[in-house]
Specification:
The protein is mostly helical and about 210 residues long. The chain is built from nine helices and no strands. The chain folds into two domains: about 15-65, Homeodomain-like (Arc Repressor Mutant, subunit A), CATH 1.10.10; about 65-214, Tetracycline Repressor, domain 2. It is about 65% helix and about 0% strand.
């Protein structure tokens, strides 16, 4: 019969308006990420993002009120991925030597991503003359540290931490940001500064004996 679903066919599930909006937003962020990381914050325009994403200006502006807001969404996505990868490095091995390899790989990959580091730096400098942007960055930074804290709470040997979890999350985030900025200016800066300090702060040294928590 005309219009009936053939036997074995899966009926098409229509997306809700919210699902379509979320999909459009993600596609815009994906297009913007490529441009921001290639051209930098100041070298990217919303018009270029509109063209790359293949949407109308209205579709882009309905999701992001400004270039800064869109760039922050890109940075937020990158930070979320970085925290997930850091969790994998911490939790991926119990052997100190293997953990050192995983953390070093994380550092060499994440803390050497000059395009992402540059984007964060450009946004931070732009925020110096934009109080609203500065407040948004502070809010998102707190969210990142909260995500790091949640990751730390999931580590098996959290009783060995040398600091309370919220303070440790702040310390690790600041350490990673600091080493990243050093690498931005000096690509030869050794990421072991992060790797070894992270091991000490988490009470899980990357060589030798694990200290007694007592």
């Amino acid at each position: 019969m005309f219009g009936s679903v053939s036997e074995g066919a899966v009926p098409e599930v229509r997306k809700t308006r919210r699902e379509r909006q979320a999909e459009t937003r993600q596609q815009v962020v994906t297009a913007a990420r490529e441009l921001f990381l290639t051209r930098g914050y100041h070298g990217t325009t919303l018009s270029a993002v509109v063209e790359a994403a293949g949407f109308t200006k209205g579709a882009v502006y309905s999701n992001f009120a400004s270039k800064a807001e869109l760039a922050l969404a890109v940075v937020e996505e990158i930070e979320r991925e970085n925290v997930e990868k850091l969790a994998g490095a911490f939790q991926g091995a119990s052997d100190p030597a293997e953990r050192a390899k995983l953390l070093t790989l994380w550092g060499e990959t994440i803390l050497s991503d000059t395009a992402a580091l540059r984007l964060r730096a450009e946004l931070s400098f732009a925020a110096m003359d934009d109080p609203a942007l500065a407040e948004t960055i502070r809010h998102k930074s707190r969210n990142v540290r909260a995500s790091v804290a949640a990751m730390l709470r999931g580590i098996d040997h959290s009783e060995r931490f040398q600091l309370d979890v919220p303070v440790l999350a702040d310390a690790l985030t600041a350490l990673a940001n600091g080493v990243g900025m050093q690498r931005l200016g000096d690509p030869d800066f050794d990421v072991q500064a992060f790797v070894l300090a992270a091991g000490v702060l988490t009470g899980m040294p990357l060589s030798g004996e694990v200290p007694d928590a007592s």
